[in-house]
Each structure stands twice: as C-alpha cells, then as structure tokens.
C-alpha cells in the first residue's frame, strides 16, 4: 500500500499489530483476565500491547509509525467488533457489544485509532531522538 508522496505502509504489519492486540479481549473471554483482576488486567495488557507495538515499529524501523499504529488500532477495532459479534451469542446466548449500539461501534474505532496515534507519536519521537 503506497499513497502518493507518503511513506510506504506495510499491510501485513498493520494487520499483525492489530491481531496482537486481540490478546486482551481473548484473555477476557477465556477468564484469564479474572485471574489478575479485570481493571488491573485490562490496564496491564494495554500497557504491554502498547510497549510491544512501540518496540516492533522501532525495531523494524517503520518510516511512518504514526499512520502505521493508527491503522493498527483501527484493525484491532475491526477484529474486536467481529469477534464480539461472533462470540457473544455463543457465550451469552445473545448479541452483545458494539454491534448492538451505533455509538459504541464508532467509539471503538475512534478510541483505538487514538490509542494508535498516541503510541505512534511516542515511536515517532523516539525515532527523531535517535537521529
């Protein structure tokens, strides 16, 4: 994927980073998050996923970490919505989650794009500091 005049973005990397973030909802669905506590576990996993994203884009020398991680956040949002739509009827007997509420649907995308923006900006700052 290459937009005229813009740095080349790696679709496999974006999808992979988005998929990596799925560890958090999978831990919640399987009950692993209950072992460390829902609130603490959610925060801990967000921090660990953010660190993983940061380390990966820095180690891979991604030329546009901000756009890459914003799109990774959007990919994660899409994956989370799909998994929620498939798994909630199986686990609870009825559809739950963002697919039942248009505001939540949009909120999931916006929140995760902002998450990617923040981590991407940190990566960009680190990259500029290394020059």
UniProtKB/TrEMBL annotation:
Keywords: Membrane, Transmembrane, Transmembrane helix. The chain crosses the membrane at residues 9-27, 39-57, 69-91, 103-123. It comes from the Bacteria. This is Phage holin family protein.
């Amino acid at each position: 994927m290459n937009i005229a005049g813009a740095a080349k973005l790696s679709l496999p990397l974006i999808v992979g980073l988005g998929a990596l973030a799925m560890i958090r909802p999978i831990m919640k669905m399987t009950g692993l998050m209950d072992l460390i506590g829902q609130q603490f576990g959610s925060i801990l996993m967000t921090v660990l996923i953010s660190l993983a994203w940061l380390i990966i884009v820095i180690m891979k020398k991604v030329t546009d970490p901000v756009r890459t991680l914003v799109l990774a956040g959007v990919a994660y949002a899409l994956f989370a919505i799909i998994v929620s739509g498939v798994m909630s009827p199986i686990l609870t007997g009825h559809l739950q989650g963002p697919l039942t509420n248009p505001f939540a649907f949009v909120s999931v995308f916006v929140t995760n794009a902002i998450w990617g923006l923040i981590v991407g900006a940190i990566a960009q700052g680190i990259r500029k500091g290394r020059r």
